[in-house]
Specification:
This protein has 181 residues and is an all-alpha fold. Helix content is 72%, strand content 0%. It has 7 helices and no strands. α4 runs parallel beside α7. The relative contact order is 0.17.
């Protein structure tokens, strides 16, 4: 079970591939298109600067919130409880996969912020902050979701109801050996 919960790499591979594709597409944009985008933007230079700053702040805030709250063990425990109530398949595996999918989706959202910054400011230079944040997110979230998956693997099997695997009733350590001889 621990190996199955431990790693589900597909969301991270998709997010990394999408990051490379988006960055390659931005590099391949013709200069005439970028100049046209800069000239036809609806924002003044000051407004574009504020929009860029707010997008960067939103991306950083979203990265921190996802890393410290969404991928936390407390949130994973809530997700595990919902999966147990649903009763479909192994709830620990489903909860771990959900954590991985949330982590990868958050890094993709950062690329969307980068696309918005490119559109609003009309410059490629400001775009590169967002893929950098996305790559840092992917590395951090991969590590964090792995730790959360290991924590989920240590949780009791939902069908065991706190009993040891051999089926014997639980006896506290102090009461062991104090029974009749």
């Amino acid at each position: 079970m621990e190996d199955a919960v431990g790693r589900w790499r597909l969301p991270f591979l998709i997010a990394a591939t999408l990051t490379v594709i988006v960055c390659s597409a931005v590099i391949a944009l013709p200069d005439t298109f970028v100049v046209h985008l800069a000239r036809s933007r609806r924002l003044t230079d000051s407004q574009a600067g504020w929009a860029y700053g707010l997008l960067a702040l939103a991306a950083a805030g979203q990265a921190l919130y996802t890393g410290f709250v969404v991928l936390s063990e407390r949130n994973a425990a809530r997700r595990l409880e919902r999966k147990i109530a649903g009763g479909d398949g192994d709830p620990r595996l489903a909860a771990a996969r959900g954590v991985d999918a949330d982590a990868a989706t958050a890094s993709i959202l950062t690329l969307v912020y980068g696309g918005a910054a490119l559109y609003l400011t009309g410059g490629r230079g400001g775009f590169w902050l967002f893929p950098l944040i996305a790559v840092i997110q992917l590395a951090w979230y991969y590590r964090t979701s792995g730790a959360t998956a290991r924590w989920l693997a240590l949780q009791a099997d939902p069908g065991s109801e706190g009993r040891p695997h051999d089926g014997a009733p639980y006896t506290p350590p102090l009461a062991r050996g104090s029974g009749p001889s």
